[in-house]
Amino acid sequence: MSFDEACNTPDLSYVSPYDRETEEQDVREMVLTPWTVQNICYEVLKNYMTENSPQKEGYRFSQAYDPDDIKTGIGLEIAYHYKDAVIQRRPGIYVSRGETAFSFPTLNQQIGGNTADSEKMRYSLVQMPINLAVVATNIGFVEQLAEYVFKIFLRYQEVIKNDFCIRQFKLATLSQPSLYLESKDHFVVNVVLQSVFDMGAVIRGDDLRLKTVAYTIFTNCMEQPLLNQ
Amino acid sequence: MSDARKVFRKIDIVPDWTRGHFIQWQLDPFFRGVRPYNFSLEISETSDFSEISITKSNLGEVFFAIDDTHSKQSWAPNYSYRVVLQTADNKKYASVPVLFGSTRHEQRKYAMAAEIIRKEILLSRYAGTEAWLLRRKSYGTKSEVTIKNIDPVSGVPITDTKEQDYGVGIDEGYFAPVPCVFYIESGSQDKQLDVNGIGVKENYSLVARIPGYPIIEVRDIICEAKDGYRYSIQSRNAKQFPGTNITLTQKATLNLIPPSDSVYAIPIPIPV
To answer: Count of A–B CB contacts within 8 Å?
Structure first.
């Protein structure tokens, strides 16, 4: 394409192959969001603990995870999920996400564009800790259980990072044990994972639903000062 | 024999003329003898135990003994009790003698206390719930299995395993169940998501009244005989008869233990 051709007005008969309806019907691959990254951790834990019991790994305690809520000896839950039908379970592991920080390393959040389809590629970098609260009945036991959990990520953080296209995924901290008094003395150790992942979006001209906002924005107050009066 | 005060911390005696007088003790936590321990109860008509009338020997590693000989049938200062601990290296440690008062005035106080206890037991029998007390072991042997459940350096239990030591670090974790009765004065139930994200915090708490026998301690377990619920004793408040070492009544805060806990695997006798 010559310089002159490129400078010409685009062909007005051009029809974009994308429209909103067909896009929404497509089966999409998983998008990394704070919720899905947290769920990746949950599922990794679940699958790992189902196949690799603590006893297989040489731990002395007898409790093991079972995907069946009733049979399991170690509870595994997304934190803040109220399950009335299921009894309180100790020992347990509770997965939750921490405060999520967004940063926009590119100018105007943009990493690309396609003028012909009026596309703009937006990009943000998300930093998010994931907390695994490990609860058990005595201090020695909770330390053993926390070790069983954090070793999973210590060994496989590289694999998880690559397989799920997470930019950074690493074991960050292991908290001090703290007393958690309920029916009996319980102790909690928090295993914290740090994740950094990409969140992006492609917007097209006709995606701008803001167009439907029923406000007029004055660009020149002198021209239409009393529009609604 | 060594100084009893360095071995036995506390000895309680509860008169029960029907089932037998109940003697309960606690060992000093700093006492270290060669295990296993073997306790025996000695009954003497002389205060210096120069002549021992009856011995209930080879009681094993227990925390109480019952004088069911029915020898002592009055408040007269005719029989004294003492507990003897024999360690595995054949050393013997005897407690200070206990008896139901030596003067007429003291005997009267013991008689009054015994009557209050009788009525407390009667009240519990009608208004209360039958249960079993599981006393948490503070001493006992460590078998090869239990030793594996303990950190070899610090001695801290690293497991909470059913049918082994239940996270206590001593064989079987709890003493054999002792029958008891309690009745509920008030109860509260709360089931909320924990703000720190540690699942559902279920708190079912009872304030229960228990007669002076058997004497309970914080961290013991009370098992309801019929419903099967098990409670951890969170706090204890005891009333003693002034001037005696008789516990009249005990008030305890009981917290329901979640059924996933290992203590539910401790077998208790089936109610009749």
So the answer is: 101
